[in-house]
Design goal:
- The structure is a single chain.
- By secondary structure, the chain is mainly alpha-helical.
- The chain has 2 domains: about 5-115, no CATH class; about 120-155, no CATH class.
- About 75% of the residues lie in helices and about 0% in strands.
- It has helices at about 5-65, 70-90, 95-110, 120-130, 135-140, 145-155.
- Helix 1 (about 5-65) packs across helix 3 (about 95-110) and helix 4 packs parallel to helix 6 (about 145-155).
Length: about 160
């Protein structure tokens, strides 16, 4: 390789300065667009999470209402039937275990309009494990905590 002459170096520096200036402006535009997209994704995630929590509550409500006044065998059979059909159509999130969680969700939080759209399904599953109602209400109000922190605090005696 031959060393570059002075003219090539000067042209290279000029291009670097131009590229830096252009990149600074481009970075500003990029940062603005990135902020818009990150915000949109967060809003979409929150909307989907809220819709799914609401759907799980409604699934639990429908199961509870169908099982009201029925024998235990009917309830077990209904959950097994629903799990098979729903899993075939919607995937593994509708196992017998998950359907029981949804039923428990409705039982634990029977007033749907009081659900908090800031909490995830994981948060609600954690809250359902707390039998002490005032304690559960306390953790429900602490919705800004992460799931991991809530899990540690809620399992303390």
């Amino acid at each position: 390789m031959s060393p570059k002459n002075k003219k090539d170096i000067d042209i290279g520096k000029a291009r670097e300065v131009e590229a830096y200036t252009r990149s600074e402006a481009e970075n500003t535009v990029y940062d603005g667009i990135r902020t818009v997209l990150v915000t949109a994704r967060q809003k979409a995630y929150a909307a989907v999470n809220s819709a799914m929590v609401e759907a799980y509550w409604d699934v639990g409500r429908q199961i509870m209402e169908a099982q009201e006044g029925q024998r235990a065998e009917y309830g077990a059979g209904l959950i097994k039937y629903l799990a098979k059909r729903l899993t075939a159509e919607f995937g593994k999130g509708f196992t017998e275990t998950n359907l029981r969680y949804m039923r428990q969700f409705y039982f634990t939080f029977p007033i749907g309009r009081t659900l908090c759209d800031q909490l995830s399904w994981s948060h609600y599953r954690l809250l359902m494990r707390i039998d002490n109602v005032p304690r559960r209400e306390f953790y429900l109000k602490m919705r800004q905590w992460s799931y991991r922190v809530s899990e540690v605090l809620a399992t303390k005696d």
